[in-house]
Design a protein that fits this description.
Strand content: 15-25%
Oligomer: single chain
Helix content: 25-40%
Largest sheet: 10 strands, mixed
CATH class: Alpha Beta
Shape: globular
Structural class: alpha/beta
CATH superfamily: DHBP synthase
CATH architecture: Alpha-Beta Complex
Mean pLDDT: 95
Low-confidence stretches: none
Number of strands: 10
Amino acid sequence: MMARTPETLIVEPGREHQAVARAVEVLRAGGLIVLPTDTVYGLAAALDRPTAITDIFEVKQRPPDLALPVLLADEDEAVRLAVELSDTARCLTEAFWPGALTVVVRKSDLVPDAITAGRATVGLRVPDCELTRRVLVACGGALAVTSANLSGAPPPHEVAQIPDGLLAHVALIIDAGPCPGGVPSTVVDVTVDAPRVLREGAITRRRITQVLEQRDG
């Protein structure tokens, strides 16, 4: 990818529409954007732009076998992008969506293999951020979004923490100030009989267990 000077939009009250519209233009053109979420700043690409998906891996120096998560506008998108949502998946999403929970489910054919590194599963999340969800809705309901950092480095909760080397390959930065969470999402694999916490993030392992025990109790 060629280095560039990214366009930056500072989001203030009344300017959300401009940011959303510009994000759609860039993503449809196959560009990458940086946008805020409820957890950390994310690096996003359209699901149907294979070159942009490849660019995310290159820009982040991300191992090619490490799948990208997908952010969703709402739970209806999860039904569309998953083969099925099990009772366990629905229990957790009802408790924590929108919010900092990523559920790993079996993917439908609508999810490109490039995003999942060839795996049969995909990580899905509905963020608790109105601006992010507005972008998602305008882009068709889902985007590939991963933290805007180099692979293995701390995830950024504000734009100033994103490395210049990464930003040099981004077309658009949507800057809405510090993300309120600052901690990545918790990732739970619900494709197995006993759900597994693959990464403990903003939602504790204990809280996940409590919700599942309440269901079973």
